[in-house]
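For the sake of transparency, this paper describes our internal protein records without simplification. An entry from our holdings is shown next, in its original layout:
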Amino acid sequence: MAGFRSLARQVRDPRCDLALRRYSLRKCLERFAPYGHRATWDHLCGRHRIDPEDRAPDPARLVAALEELEEARAVWLAYEDNFADRRKREKHDGLRRPGHIDDWHRRTWGGNGVARCDTPTEHPSAPLAEVLRRLIGALEAEPGTACPVCSDTHIVWRQQLEHEPWSGPVCTGCGIVVPQPVLTAEAVSAAKRAGRRELASVA
């Protein structure tokens, strides 16, 4: 199975036909897709003006999309390195039980679904690397009451999400499933109340 860097080389290789280069970019998303595979693909296509169904897109646009993905991956890998170093220090100091952030981090190891978007067409518009920097900043700060990506405070608890976690707080501003560790207990409670009102209005 080809790794991310091998696939990235294929995306850049002018000797490969465009269908293979496009396919290789899609395969990169199986290794790293911050919003989830479909939402990250929709994001990259929108930002780099690639027709999602075009089997032979402009190679310059494919490479630009890859570069955005690579920059975001570098941001996330640096965070994971720091995270691993911190856990080693904590274990050395006798803190073996993982915390709340660790539980969330375990589900996103490798960068898949870091800022998962349950609806593939609803996702942040900012560059992926900037979104991840904002999210990491929130993970390293005190919990707050707003979405760490877009600062929207309208967060609604949704049931039956498509991926783990199967329920959670969703930002109605940018569409991400907000990691619970970045929200205060009061913000999570408010999101659950908003979710119950949403369900009642549908019923």
Observations:
- The chain has a mean pLDDT of 90.
- Residues 57 and 120 are 21 Å apart (CA to CA).
- Residues 59-92 form the longest helix (34 residues).
- Strands lie at 155-158, 168-171.
